[in-house]
Please model this.
Amino acid sequence: MLSKRLCHLLLAALVPALLAADPPWIVRSQTGMVAADSPEASQVGAEILEQGGNAFDAAIATSFALAVARPESTGLGGGGFMLAYLAKERRFVALDFREMAPAAATRARYEKLTTGAGDGPPPSIYGGNAVGIPGQLAGLVEIQRRFATKPLAELVEPAIRLAETGFTVDEHLQRACREALADYTNWPQLKERHAQLYESLLGSGEPAKPGDKLKRPDLAKALTLIAEQGPDVFYRGPIAAAIVRAVRIAGGEMMMIDLEGYRVREREPLRATYGGYEIVTMPPPSSGGVCLLETLNILSLVRERIQYPPGWRGSGYPRNLIQALKHAFADRARWLGDPDFASLPVQRLTSRAYAEELLARNAVTPDDFGSTQLPDDRGTSHFCVADKDGNVVALTETINGVFGSLVIAEPYGIPLNNQMDDFTTSAGKPNLFGLIQGEANAVGPAKRPLSSMTPTIVLKDNRPALVLGASGGPRIITSVLQVLLNVIEFDMSMEEAMTAVRLHHQWKPDEVYFDREPPAELAEWLKNAKPACKISTQRKTGVVQAIQFLDDGTFVGASDPRRGGRPAAPAR
Ligand code: GLY
Model:
């Protein structure tokens, strides 16, 4: 059996010995839990639970707080996905509030822009043409309307306070600012084009330091307007006008009618079994769920058939994991896009029969697109919420790259996303995350770009056993997959599951990435494997937030220590 022993040899080589006490990024409670990548946002959500709110109330308040405290990753200028479990009705709901492309976003426009950009900043990443119509607020409003118990204004209020009094800067924000400033150094024209971001959040080259308090009075204004007048201020009123103005000044073509036309979509969650567990996850326009299930199906067949000898060296486990990921990411590139515009073979890709076929074929030969630098995890934010009544929320939201497009909707201090880069805007060329994307994901008016976000809930005996998700572009998928397997396959504690070494393979480039130096024996084995597996020199992975549900009713919240989040629990 693919058991603890194998796993501990393979993945846990770098796991520190079990500590007597939990580290600060793990919190236990009997009353509920919020695990976000910002301690202040987790606290906001936990306080809403404490005041009698349900998991949806807490999720909305947490998300507004993240808009204040994680400007580098998420906010009103972005979009996201929510997967939730409604305990009373024993059903799942998946909401899609991903950005949509504006009416002017034609393929011809992006081909021309890309050709004209030369060595300058890529137009799908920087500036007005990078910006998709934000869906974040529409999503939160929809969650409030259908599932919350408290009025929107009450759920926005803690974020207004946080923006007015200031949030605590951490190392993650400081690193993100440095990364953005490096772009300003590379392309000095950005300083003129995107002066607002440079002068505000980037501190004119001297960003705030960890421990500093950073106030966001401009964003507080926008949040107050939303609390007082509702979401129309954002989609039809003064904030809409500010977004359109900012995008157009930055060279884009967004119109008021684009914002007015934004719609949240409900999607049918994807489901599959693995061992004695049921996995419920996000369907397209995220690729996350499809890739997760395709990979798990292959590994599940392997697990049923192969009696691994002890130790990774003699086993095929790392090879099977990498091969499964290559199949999934190859299919992502070929087949996936916006389900509203193309019929996607989701059923086939996530079927056991297809996994059998792939396992028998056992080969993917990547074309030679060359290797490309993956950006570090800066954009995107995931959080999980669970309440005492059994409701569970997994919500991943993003403005995509670090500070999105660098465009700020003034005077409201809202960083606007660069989600247009998640489309195929230049056929055959890798995007910001080094992903090759296909025809099904071609840019076009009103389409939603393919995502990797993977909010996921795992059931055991029809009850939630684990909820998780991640930030980190395509490494979201591999991070969710490995933490999930660490818990349900390898029986690791949350601490072990989070800190175990992680690998990532996305088909192209044909390299395996680790989050840190891989164990020497494993590196050697990969180098000598047939076909040989090139190990990237980049050391990166995603950032996972999770809650595990123990049989005795304990919620174990965990915020990946790679980013400095802290879970928080209601006091009662
Ligand atoms: N923008 C990152 C993702 O949606 O996967």
Remarks:
- The domain at 2-15+267-379+453-568 is CATH 3.60.20.40 (Glutamine Phosphoribosylpyrophosphate, subunit 1, domain 1).
- Residues 1 and 307 are 6 Å apart (CA to CA).
- The radius of gyration is 22 Å.
- Confidence is low (pLDDT under 50) at residues 1-7, 12-19, 309-314, 366-375.
